[in-house]
Design a protein that fits this description.
GO molecular function: acetate CoA-transferase activity; acetyl-CoA hydrolase activity
Radius of gyration: 23 Å
Number of domains: 2
Organism: Phocaeicola coprocola DSM 17136
Protein name: Succinate CoA transferase
EC number: 2.8.3.-
CATH topology of the largest domain: Glutaconate Coenzyme A-transferase
Oligomer: single chain
Structural class: alpha/beta
Strand content: 15-25%
Helix content: 25-40%
Pfam families: AcetylCoA_hyd_C, AcetylCoA_hydro
Distance between the termini: 75 Å
Bound molecules: ligand 0RQ
Length: about 500
């Protein structure tokens, strides 16, 4: 071993108040586990001595409880970016304790390389192996770790023996050249390799190696319900229609799908529909259903930035590791989410909205316009650049008290210009080629819940015919949100004439 082994406590003590820390990992996996926990204990000790200790956290995306919960509970985080999906972190962000910068996942790596967010004092990354030359073989995710390792002043490596050598060869580490003389990313097919299997680190920066032996804690998804199944089936039926009329090439197109139960339902329905050919995925997150469909030969190849798998699916992957290494690639999120790649490969992107308005604007991040849920993640990277950009959402939330289809979204993440298809359990709204008035009719008719249709038609009627391109009533646009905030039920909305 080229580097010395140290304890998590020794590693934590090399981090100082006010430091910016780059944490490896993506979509809750491949994150360091021992050092963040030790850092939380260290912060609490300093606080009990009346000393200040807070750090800034820059990550690839969601990190999971070992990082976000531990450090937030210790009141040790001043700043956080980008995507998170952790309850404690979300509460601290909404309480104003943590300053949160929400940015597209394709951009954060480049922003860090060019110093947009200041220096990275310490990078903490998880390795599954360290080569004789001292290069780092990452573990279950890539995220922005190669960039963090490149730019950080100090690097702490957690060597996770739970994955020992099993993942070697599955990574494809490529960082784009510097502008303005950048060449194209040399990936022309989903399975092309562009880079190396490990990350080179300047040995002088390595503080030490902390041994761990712990898997990521990914829970199995909740079973499909009626609503998520119908959304999945609607997406599959729509894509089959497009395929049969020749709008999608015979070999099909690579698919991106978000995370969570709806994404699982969509993949399940696509996998089950044998009229569609087996397909490839060019996506951010490789979740359980992808492994299931690979075992059934419905997915040919997958490239992503993380193996967000529960233990049984990771076992399945490891049991078939020789075959899986031919069919799975893990890349930096800057490449999986790169607009150039998404456009060139003609990705079909399926992401989830919290709410959508009748014109097709989508809110993926803010409850009632102000409370942060998770963050924009990669949804807009894909939505803007995809061949077909699909957003899904149940037509209602909170047992029907909220309509997910509203006159005007309370926050915009993906605009009407980027959202081509909207799908709820009620049906599919194909927005391509339609004016705002036509889109509004199409969405109300096909996507809104019957409890809210009349209300939405009323809004449209009172907004139309006033010499405008987009029938919007400034006075009434947020009335449904206001009704929910004041009465707890959007069905109590009263529009002003
Ligand atoms: O709240 O848990 O308290 O009941 O919002 O909603 O239905 O559990 O949805 O887990 O699929 O997440 C958009 C957040 C959806 C996610 C979002 C309430 C609802 C519930 C969550 P409760 P569900 P999901 C790939 C691409 C952005 C990033 C992205 C996301 C909670 O998909 O973060 O796409 N997307 N990345 O009750 C108020 C509404 C609501 C509402 C739902 N209209 N108003 N509350 N809820 N609709 C992955 C990465 O980027 C890594």
């Amino acid at each position: 071993m080229k580097y010395s082994f140290i304890s998590a406590e020794e590693a934590a003590a090399s981090i100082h108040n006010g430091n910016t820390i780059g944490i490896g990992g993506f979509s809750s996996v491949g994150t360091p586990k021992a050092v963040p926990a030790a850092l939380a204990v260290y912060a609490e000790k300093l606080h009990s001595e009346g000393k200040e200790f807070k750090v800034g956290l820059i990550t690839g995306g969601a990190t999971g409880s070992q990082v976000d919960s531990a450090l937030v509970q210790a009141h040790a985080v001043a700043f956080r970016t980008p995507f998170q999906s952790n309850k404690e972190m979300r509460n601290a962000i909404n309480a104003g304790e943590v300053q949160y910068y929400d940015v597209h996942l394709s951009q954060i790596g480049q922003d860090v390389r060019y110093g947009f967010l200041g220096d990275i004092d310490v990078a903490i990354v998880e390795a599954s192996d360290i080569t004789e030359e001292g290069d780092i073989v990452l573990s279950t995710s890539v995220g922005i770790s190669p960039t963090l390792i490149q730019v950080a002043h100090k690097v702490i490596i957690e060597l996770n023996e739970a994955h020992a050598s099993k993942l070697t060869g599955m990574h494809d580490i490529y960082i784009p050249d510097a502008p303005p003389y950048r060449r194209e990313i040399p990936i022309y097919r989903v399975n092309d390799r562009a880079g190396s299997i490990s990350v080179r680190v300047n040995p002088e920066k390595v503080v030490g190696v902390v041994r761990t032996n712990e898997r990521d804690r990914i829970a199995a998804f909740t079973p499909l319900n009626d609503t998520t199944s119908r959304i999945g089936q609607n997406v599959a039926d729509f894509l089959l229609g497009e395929y049969q009329r020749g709008a999608i090439p015979r070999e099909f197109l690579p698919l991106q799908s978000g995370v969570g139960n709806i994404a699982n339902a969509v993949l399940g329905a696509l996998g089950a529909d044998k009229k569609l050919p087996a397909f490839s995925m060019y996506t951010e997150v490789i979740q359980n259903s992808v492994i299931d469909l690979m075992m059934q030969e419905r997915i040919r190849f997958v490239a992503g930035s993380s193996l967000t798998l529960s233990d049984d699916r990771l076992d399945m992957l490891y049991d078939n590791i020789d075959v899986m290494k031919e069919r799975v690639l893990l890349r930096p999120q800057e490449i999986t989410n790169h607009p150039e790649m998404i456009r060139r490969l003609g990705i079909i992107a399926v992401n989830t909205a919290l709410e959508a308005d009748i014109f097709g604007n989508v809110n993926s991040t803010h409850v009632l316009g102000s409370k942060m849920m998770n963050g924009i993640g990669g949804s807009a990277d894909f939505a803007r650049n995809a061949y077909l950009s699909i957003f899904t959402t149940p037509s209602t939330a909170k047992d029907g008290l909220i309509s997910s289809i509203v006159p005007h979204v309370s926050h915009v993440d993906s605009t009407e210009h980027d959202v081509r298809i909207l799908v709820t359990e009620q049906g599919v709204a194909d927005l391509r080629g339609k004016s705002p008035s036509q889109r509004a009719r199409c969405i109300i008719e096909n996507c809104a819940h019957p409890d809210y249709k009349e209300l939405l038609w009323d809004y449209l009627k009172l907004s139309e015919g006033k010499g405008c391109h987009t029938p919007m009533s400034l006075r009434n646009a947020l009335k449904m949100h206001i009704a929910f905030a004041e009465t707890g039920d959007m069905r109590n909305t009263k529009f002003e004439m």
